[in-house]
Amino acid sequence: MPQPDHAAPPAGSAIWPYPLWIAHRGAGTLAPENTLAAFRLGAAHGYRMFECDAKLSADGVPFLLHDATLERTTNAQGDARQLSWSELSRLDAGGWHSPGYAGEPPATLAALVAFCRANGHCLNVEIKPSPGAEAETGTAVARALARQWEDAEFPPPLLSSFSREALAAARDAAPRLPRGLLLHELDPDWADAARHLDCRAIVCHHPLWTADLVAQVHAAGWRALAYTVNDADEAQRLLGLGLDGLITDRVDRLPTGQPGRSGRH
């Protein structure tokens, strides 16, 4: 019998309005990450929620980029924080991926929000500050999203970060936006940090999730999300544990390749 697309809500928690499946950086590795082309491709594969990385330009414009430096995903080099948005907007953020995407520009966070709002998509924005700009980035990203999503009739963006300073700044700037604490490992004070930051979700590197950890997270009223889940067997393991969200690069194979799922998002 097909299972529902959403795990049962933790006892006593608010309704979780987000899809189970989340496309990593737009379309995973199928298109140049964090560009509008990637989000369009992810949507073409049926995904209705997207993860992205947001940081600030030198003049304070929130834009999409994972790395602190430019060389991996653009035709430029150096610290992304040193360039204004006018300079960043002229870069090629697609040619590194494949010739068909040559000339694809970087994207502002505002442009991605406009795309998501126009199409009714949900968004998980990872606050990815350049070194030394943690609080500034958390504040700017949260304020921008609160303004742009204020009158939307569908769920607000989920803010997440490995940087607790950035999440604290986001909480103070836009307390109504939901937050998720990103964890690559379980340090001793992760639960205290999540409570202090008033998080709605814990977003762990997928191998960390066990039945006991899911039970602990759900008992605290948080949702359990995993990144980056690209293997079908691992996805099934996590679904069996009751995960509430899976972030994946394999938008071409998951979740339609998962036995026991309906394929809806």
Describe the structure.
- The protein is an alpha/beta fold.
- Mean pLDDT is 92; it is low at 1-9 and 256-265.
- It has eight helices and nine strands.
- The two termini are 17 Å apart.
- It has a nine-stranded mixed sheet.
- The protein is 28% helix and 16% strand.
Q: What would you call the structural class?
A: alpha/beta
Describe the global form: globular
Spell out the helices and strands N to C: EHEEHHEHEHEHEHEHE
Helix content estimate: 25-40%
Would you identify the regions where 5 or more consecutive residues have pLDDT less than 50? 1-9, 256-265
Strand order of the largest sheet: 1-9-8-7-6-5-4-2-3
Number of helices: 8
Rounded to the nearest angstrom, the radius of gyration is: 18 Å
- Give the distance, in angstroms, between the N- and C-terminal Cα atoms: 17 Å
* Biggest beta sheet summary: 9 strands, mixed
In terms of DSSP E residues, the strand content is 15-25%
Number of beta-strand segments:
9
* Global mean pLDDT: 92
